[in-house]
Amino acid sequence: MTEFVQQLLGGFATGSVYALLALSLSVIYSGTGILNFAQGAMAVVSAFICLTLATDGWSLWLAIPVVIALSAIMGAVVERILVKPVEGQPPLALFTVTAALLLGIGGLVSIIWDNEQHAFASPFGSEAVHLGPIVLTAQQLGSTGVAVVVMVAVAVFFRYTDLGLCMRAVAINAPSAVLLGIRPGILIAAGWALAAGVGAVAGIMAAPTLSVSSNMMDGPLLLALAAAALGGFGSRVGAVMGGLTIGVLDALTGRYIPGLSGDLSIMLPFAVIWVVLMVRPLGVFGQASAVRA
What we know:
Radius of gyration: 19 Å
Largest sheet: 2 strands, antiparallel
Strand content: under 5%
Helix content: over 70%
Number of helices: 11
Strand order of the largest sheet: 1-2
Structural class: mainly alpha
Order of helices and strands: HHHHEEHHHHHHH
């Protein structure tokens, strides 16, 4: 039983990173209908900037909020310059833009930094924490705690702040929001900024475990997309629950199903997602939208 709980908590810690990345995807999708395939690459840039500041002598606890703010600005600039001109175009055009952005950011990372792996010290230290017979690292506990705080903060933002409520109004019905004096363009840029900030947290929290490299977020992005599909694209609650579910299933599969360890451990989570989507194509928390004539 102790080993099962150990695996469960470890999977929850890993899943919190997937949940953050899926949440950032959901924030953009719910406001624009765009799947930002470059979300992982943008998180890589954030991790590299944080590593650079730490190498230059900055305290990680000072560098992290600075990087999150810079990442939010980067998200808004990307939306205004590269995405806004094609908003409202067919899905293929939007897909092409985010795919090109993914490749472009990857190239810039290689030019500005390199393609090597770089160790990233955990801001929480390297100690092991004993919870009775359960042993977790300070990084696992700290990153999970940060992820929970960010998720709660995003939920509070969308539920109780004027800006968050306006962003929800634009996502639900942009033409009606315009009639109420809301400017959708600015709010969509704010959504990209928020998503980039959340993605930056995911990248920084994953860096001590994955090391910082140009492709460090490729695997997590794939699992985050799966998490968003499982929970329902556009559902922030679904994105979080999907990410946590995949993290736990991945951990338990690798430990308890023979022959599915290592990279093969993701087969069961994807099999579960396939079954769920066969029964409920919109995802567990997804809802069909109704358009009034």
